[in-house]
Amino acid sequence: MGVRAGGRTNPPTWQPAELVADRWENQATRTLILDVPGWPGHQPGQHVDVRLTADDGYQAVRSYSLAAPADGDRVELTVQRVPDGEVSPYLADGLPVGARIEVLGPIGGYFVWRPDETGSTLLVAGGVGVVPLMAMARAWRGAPAEPLRMIYSLRSPDLLCYGDELAALPSAGAGVLLAYTREAPASEARRPARLTSAEIAGHGFAAEEAPRCYVCGPTGFVEAAASALIDLGHAPARIRTERFGPTGG
C-alpha cells in the first residue's frame, strides 16, 4: 500500500520515473537514483515494480528493493546485472541519465523496519539481499536509537556493495561483519568460508535481548540463516525473511 502523510493509504499506481543520477557499487551493480513526482513515501524494506516498454509495445516488469529511506520524490534502486537477463542488463548498462521508466509502489508491509519500534536490530544479508537491509541501516543511521548490527555474506570483494558506507557504520555505533565465502581481501583476518551459526551468534545479539532480525538473500541462504537464528533461541516471530531468486533478470 502507498503510505501518505497522516497515515492515509492508497493503492499504488504506475508512475513515471526519470533517472537523474547513478553510481556503480561494483562492476556488475548500479544504483539508480530516480525522480518520481508525487512519490508517496516508503518504509525501509519495501520494494517497487519496474516496468519497461519497448517501441513495439512489449512490456517487461521486474521487482527491485528500495535501497534508501524515503527522501521526497527521490527513489534509489540498486540493480545487479543478471547474465542473459531481460531487464537487469538494460538497467545496469543501457539506461541513460534522463531516461524515463515506470515504477509501481511502494509494495510490501511485512519486511519493513520502523525506527519507532524498540529493541536491537540484526540485519543478515546474502549477496544482493543487502539492498533492502542497507535502506534499514541508512534509516537507522539517520536517527540511531537502539543498537544495530549487520552481517553481510558475499562471494568476493568485487561483488561488495556500499563499501564506504559499511566501513563507516562502526563509527556510528553499528557492528558490521563481512563474511566472504569464495575469496577475501588479503588484509581480511577471516578466511573465505560460508557464514556459520557461531558467527551469527558472535556478531549478532543474544536471543535474550529479543532483537528484530531481518534476513534477505537467496532462498538457501535465508533458510540456513533463519534456521541458525531459531537454533540459537531467537523467537520465530522476531525473524523476518525475504527471499529472491531468478526471475529472468
The helix content is 10-25%
As a percent range, the share of strand residues is 25-35%
Can you say what the CATH homologous superfamily of the largest domain is?
A: Nucleotide-binding domain of ferredoxin-NADP reductase (FNR) module
CATH topology grouping of the largest domain? Rossmann fold
Taken from the alpha-carbon principal axes, the silhouette is globular
Mean pLDDT: 93
> Number of DSSP strands?
13
Q: What's the Cα radius of gyration? A: 18 Å
Low-confidence stretches: 1-8
Strand order of the largest sheet: 6-5-8-3-4-7
* Biggest sheet descriptor: 6 strands, antiparallel
Q: What is the count of DSSP helices, taking H or I runs of 4+ residues?
A: 5
Q: Strand-and-helix sequence, N→C? A: EEEEEEEHEEHEHEHEHE
State the CATH class of the largest domain: Alpha Beta
CATH architecture of the largest domain: 3-Layer(aba) Sandwich
Termini gap: 25 Å
Pfam families: FAD_binding_6, NAD_binding_1
Keywords: 2Fe-2S, Iron, Iron-sulfur, Metal-binding
Protein name: FAD-binding oxidoreductase
Domain FAD-binding FR-type: 12-113
Summarize, please:
Helices cover 18% and strands 34% of the residues. It has 249 residues and is α/β, with parallel strands linked by helices.
